[in-house]
Design a protein that fits this description.
The protein is an alpha/beta fold and 198 residues long. The chain is 38% helix and 22% strand. It has a single domain, classed as Formyl transferase, N-terminal domain (Rossmann fold, 3-Layer(aba) Sandwich), CATH 3.40.50.
Length: 198
């Protein structure tokens, strides 16, 4: 069986990447294979995580170049590894409509809320959980969606709700959303998309 070739794009520590790598090793993504991890900065710990799992890891430093040059360099890496599917796992660089349009229904993103709640410009990381706590919601969660040319758009693939507890801080809520939603949904969504390409 030929497997879809996956690139995971990262910017930081790589906890979602670790979940994907562990799921792959456990046989939970049988129709896909992570063949490349690419970070938007050279200091991302996610690169070390990838190497620890024997996955090629590289960086394309976003700050060092223009948007166009960054995306050209990224496309060169993706082509070199014959990538079929891209997973954005804590990838903080914005991709242009032109870049996204080249990967129709092949770019997955995870967002730490139940879209459409707490998303949009500036809503990433702890900010999302701070907003959820400030609003006083009782339930939050995570969403994995396909990225398209519309900002914050795309088809929702999977969502999972997570209870907000009275004693939660943004940090404790973030951790629980990762453990109970993101780390479960990302491998499931990866398999869903890769199986569709088989």
């Amino acid at each position: 069986m030929s497997k879809a070739r996956i690139a995971v794009l990262v910017s930081g520590g790589g906890t979602n990447l670790e979940a994907l790598l562990n799921a792959q090793e456990a046989g939970q993504i049988p129709h896909g294979e992570i063949v490349l991890v690419c970070a938007s900065n050279e200091g991302a710990y996610a690169l070390e995580r990838a190497r620890n799992h024997g996955v090629p890891a590289t960086a394309v430093a976003r700050k060092a170049m223009s948007q166009s040059a960054f995306e050209t360099a990224l496309n060169i890496k993706l082509a070199a590894y014959r990538v079929d599917v891209i997973i954005l796992a804590g990838f903080l660089s914005i991709l242009s409509e032109e870049f996204v349009s080249r990967w129709p229904d092949r770019i997955l993103n995870v967002h730490p809320s139940l879209i459409p709640a707490f998303c949009g410009k500036g809503m990433y990381g702890l900010r999302v959980h701070e907003a959820a706590l400030a609003r006083g919601v009782k339930v939050t969660g995570a969403t994995v969606h396909l990225v398209n040319e519309i900002p914050d758009g795309g088809r929702i693939l999977l969502q999972k709700a997570v209870e907000v507890l009275p004693e939660d801080t943004a940090e404790t809520l973030q951790r629980r959303v990762m453990e109970q939603a993101e780390w479960i949904l990302l491998p499931q969504a990866a398999e869903l998309v890769c199986r569709g390409l088989a």
